[in-house]
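Data availability excerpt. The first of two example chains:
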Amino acid sequence: MRSHLPLAHVRILDLTRLLPGPFCTRLLADQGADIVKLEDQDAGDYLRLLNPQIFGAMNHGKRSITLNLRQEAGRSALMRLIPHFDVLVESFRPGVLARLGCGYEALREVHHGLIYCAVTGYGQEGESATRSGHDLNYMATAGLLSGFAGPLPIQAADFCGGYAAAFQIAAALEGRRQSGEGCFLDVSMTAAVLPMAVTRLAGDRLEGGLACYRLYQTADHQKYSLGALEPKFFAAFTQAVGRPELAALQFDLSKQEELEDVLAEIFARRSTAEWEQFFRKVDACGAPVRTPAQAVGTLSLSGPRQGEHTVEVLAAAGFSKDEIDALRKT
């Protein structure tokens, strides 16, 4: 039952694709929102073909309709649909929908309370606003990739942008509840990921520079994480392994290489399973390094088929059978 969830009364029209927008609306769907994914009638969301498993994870629980927004009939249908939704989320470059005649100002004319969220790489204004880009470019611009030889193994800007958009939409819904007014939300993925880059100003201490905060190899050649950053946790760890004198070296930068060698030798004495038993008894911030497949386990999610709910959604919005048939042919 989703009726008890906080956003069960909210309907969202999602025009986004790939990761940031779909991740945003997946977060909102998890809180009960009814998400209708609007895709074009050709390829639809590129993620369907790029990675069906990730597509399923990002779009599970949503409904899909197809409209051709390049045609006047499709754009007119969008204008008719808008009053039936609380929020529209899009990830086109700035101005694309406005040039088609269905940007925020045009949609606001037919739905004054609409919350319109635009998720872009660089925001709506500035010299980079209309530049093409992807997660890698936004992380580079934000300073997150400095010092790395290649891309990071996660799409940090995409996911930070999705989180930021979901948070702003939730806040805007509360604002509209109080004022009755909709609004335009400008979400920049570069700006959203910037706080992650700012943490790197502290230097390399959290990037392997401190021996108490890094990965070590176990006896069965697996990796295990030690995150004993606070002195109380590192003291508990060193006491439990019989080397309490090591606690005094925790933040001595001249001793980190020496401390790392000692800790590596300590971790190599036990298997991953044995370290798991150890850290269940000793409160010292330890956890095994799992693969994504191990972490996800048997989770298997599927998203909607492209256009699966077109008839259902359009009929509920008052479109006749003839109108629906015509739109599906455009």
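And the second chain:
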Amino acid sequence: MTIRWSQTAASDLENIYDLIARDKPGAALDTIENLFVAADRLGEFPQLGRAGELGTRQLPVPPFVIVYRIIDPVISIEAVFHGSRRY
């Protein structure tokens, strides 16, 4: 399956990077890389996450959560947020 990032999800990644990079640029890069690796796994295992709200699924990548939809043959990444927040 193909992975597509929505504009909202791309913006979420930029915000996450900017926030972490203020104090730890290396950690910011590692965090973004971990999120991309986790999202890429969905291409092979689209049911990897748990059921979410409104037809979405959620893939925990602590401390973040990737929100996605399966629109065969595409995995649409809708948002990325900190796990302490509610989507």
